Backbone:
């Protein structure tokens, strides 16, 4: 098994994060499955104070936020590192519904978020 890719902690203190075990429980999956989602690039983890954490905004009521995995794939294809992806997802953008890309994803505006992510590749 490969190592879990971990982004630099570029999240502000206002961004909620949850522990690895809590994230797996909230998603209703095993920690092994959570590790696989991270290795597959469907989620991003950060390390804060020696603990692996998942941004709470990545987790919806029925699993990972709809559209997040696809957006991460588009950003990866555009050459973004996991740290750059986090910065972009949590950066304020007043032209998006929800003000940040992650909040727009959480409010079912995934098409617009992916469109903007695709534009970054050009």
Residues:
């Amino acid at each position: 098994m490969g190592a879990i890719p971990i982004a630099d902690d570029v999240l502000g203190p206002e961004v909620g994060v949850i522990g690895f075990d809590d994230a797996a429980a909230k998603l209703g999956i095993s920690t092994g499955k959570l590790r696989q989602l991270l290795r597959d690039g469907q989620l991003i983890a950060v390390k804060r104070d020696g603990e692996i954490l998942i941004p709470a905004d990545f987790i919806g009521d029925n699993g990972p936020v709809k559209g997040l995995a696809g957006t991460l794939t588009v950003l990866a294809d555009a050459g973004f590192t996991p740290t750059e992806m986090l910065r972009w997802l949590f950066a304020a953008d007043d032209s998006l519904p929800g003000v940040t890309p992650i909040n727009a994803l959480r409010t079912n505006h995934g098409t617009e978020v992916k469109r903007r992510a695709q534009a970054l590749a050009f």
Q: What stands out?
A: The chain has a mean pLDDT of 92. Strands lie at 6-7, 17-19, 45-48, 51-55, 59-60, 63-64.
